[in-house]
Specification:
5-stranded mixed beta sheet, Immunoglobulin-like, alpha+beta, binds copper (II) ion, about 160 residues
């Protein structure tokens, strides 16, 4: 159902934009669904271990996300095969997974994704915004399906982090 939705937009959106005439679309280019790359000092720092058991392990655990908070993820591939840590909403991850199936050897340089070989570590800082559901996913073919994902809503409002 989500995919149909996506195809609808791919096919019809260009004509809708033209129909909108003078309406400005300056924000459409590099916009991400669940926030933007984070800058400055993060509110939280979380280690992510990627494992061949097709699981992400967060240390400390990641049980909530608040609108406006910035998290620095320190991501390590503790397995022996390639893994990926990608931040998006469900539709982003469906699109990303399809692209990966078509081009399995493609290297991702997107600011919301790190792709790591065995033993590698990378930092990814992200500011979470909006009220969408965040899907952390490994889109190496077969991995997401095997459970390599973590799903959390962004909650609006202030309060304690962690
Ligand atoms: Cu993986």
């Amino acid at each position: 159902m989500k995919l149909k939705h996506y195809l609808f937009f791919m096919i019809y959106l260009p004509s809708l934009v033209i129909a909108a005439g003078t309406h400005e679309h300056s924000h459409d280019g590099d916009k991400f669904s669940v926030g933007e790359p984070g800058t400055g000092s993060p509110d939280r720092r979380i280690k992510v271990s990627m494992r061949d058991t097709m699981r992400f392990a967060f240390e400390p655990q990641l049980n909530n996300l608040r609108h406006g908070e910035t998290i620095e993820f320190v991501v390590t591939n503790d397995g022996v095969i390639q893994h990926e840590f990608s931040i998006g909403n469900a539709e982003d991850q469906i699109k990303h997974a399809e692209m990966m199936r078509k081009m399995p050897d493609m290297k991702h340089e997107d600011p919301n994704t790190v792709s790591l070989a065995a033993g590698e570590t990378a930092r990814l800082q992200w500011k979470f915004m909006g009220d969408d559901t965040v899907v952390f996913a490994c889109n190496i073919p077969g991995h997401f399906e095997a459970g390599m994902k973590h799903v959390l809503p962004i909650t609006i409002g202030s309060g304690n982090y962690g």
